[in-house]
Design brief:
The protein is α/β, with parallel strands linked by helices. The protein has a single domain, classed as Rossmann fold. The protein has eight helices and seven strands. Strand 2, helix 2 and strand 3 form a beta-alpha-beta unit. The longest helix is centred in the middle third of the chain and has 29 residues. Bound molecules: nicotinamide-adenine-dinucleotide. Nicotinamide-adenine-dinucleotide binds next to helix 1 and helix 6.
Length: 259
């Protein structure tokens, strides 16, 4: 199949919803075979069904090393190679540094940061053996600037940027690139949950659409992002078109962090 990812094999975590599902569909449309991984079995199987024979699905809890090792083994067994990893799975939660419990902190770090390292840990040997690859890690504008209500989330997403640069530096000589995507707000279940929690805590009765309008107005481009905005950037970073781009954290935010 022709396309910008023709002949490549990709793993996408968090592929059962939002950005992960949109990216899985786009990668497959551009010729990749895709392992769709997610903790939500029904949703991730639906993603693979929507794509067709170019996709397989696996139930994976990215907080568990054994699950990630199995995800990688299954991918290579099914497709014979592994060229692209999009470590995208994540959770969001609004809290603050005083009220946050140690359990909340540890869960967030496990799912949004440790998982990114574990995904690289089991993927890198295959990429090294194959002579190269592209790793894309999902960070956030919250990893670049301080945003109220997200102490553990911001810490995890900043950590993702540090790990991204480290992997790029260490495995560049093996022709492996590693980049991070830092989106601002894109309407998905994760973001809706955070906005709802914030509104609840503030005693704010505004609707989701009203909250979205307020967030959009904070961006110089006066809109929030779309699933396609993020999937298109992931596609570019996955493809050979970005062949000399490595170790960067790309803001995807309509100039929010430029102001
Ligand atoms: N939507 C945004 O505005 C935005 C902004 C910045 C960063 N992000 C990041 O983008 C990524 C995708 O989020 P989204 O907005 O598409 O949200 P989403 O809720 O639509 O999708 C997240 C997916 O991750 C899966 N997931 C959660 N915990 C998991 C676990 N332990 N193991 C495996 N899968 C798990 C969920 O089941 C879900 O399918 C996340 O890392 C998020 O932090 C999103």
């Amino acid at each position: 199949m022709a396309g910008r990812l023709a002949g490549k094999v990709a793993i996408i975590t968090g592929a059962g919803s939002g950005i992960g599902r949109a990216s899985a569909k786009l990668f497959a449309a551009e010729g990749a075979r895709v392992m769709c991984a997610d903790i939500d079995t029904a949703n991730v199987e639906e993603t693979a069904r929507l794509i067709g024979p170019a996709a397989i699905a696996a139930t994976v809890d990215v907080a568990k090393a054994a699950d990630i090792e199995r995800m990688v083994t299954q991918t290579v067994a099914a497709f014979g190679q592994l060229d692209i990893l999009y470590a995208n799975a994540g959770i969001g939660e609004a809290t603050n540094a005083i009220d946050m419990t140690l359990e909340q902190w540890e869960r967030m770090i496990a799912i949004n940061l440790t998982s990114v390292w574990l995904s690289a840990k089991y993927t890198l040997p295959h990429m090294i053996a194959a002579g190269g690859g592209s790793i894309i890690n999902q960070s956030s504008t919250a990893g670049l600037i301080g945003i109220p209500d997200l102490p553990h989330y911001s810490s995890a997403k900043s950590g993702v940027i540090g790990l991204t640069r480290q992997i790029a530096a260490e495995y560049g000589p093996k022709n492996i690139r590693c980049n991070a995507i830092c989106p601002s707000s894109i309407p998905t279940p994760l973001v809706s949950r955070v906005w709802e929690q914030r509104a609840l805590e503030a005693g704010n009765t505004s609707t989701l659409a009203e909250q979205q309008a307020v967030v959009a107005a904070r961006h110089p481009m006066r809109r929030i992002g779309t699933l396609a905005d993020c999937a298109n950037l992931a596609l570019f970073l996955a493809s050979d078109e970005s062949g000399w781009i490595s170790g960067v954290a790309v803001p995807l935010d309509g100039a929010l962090t430029a102001t």
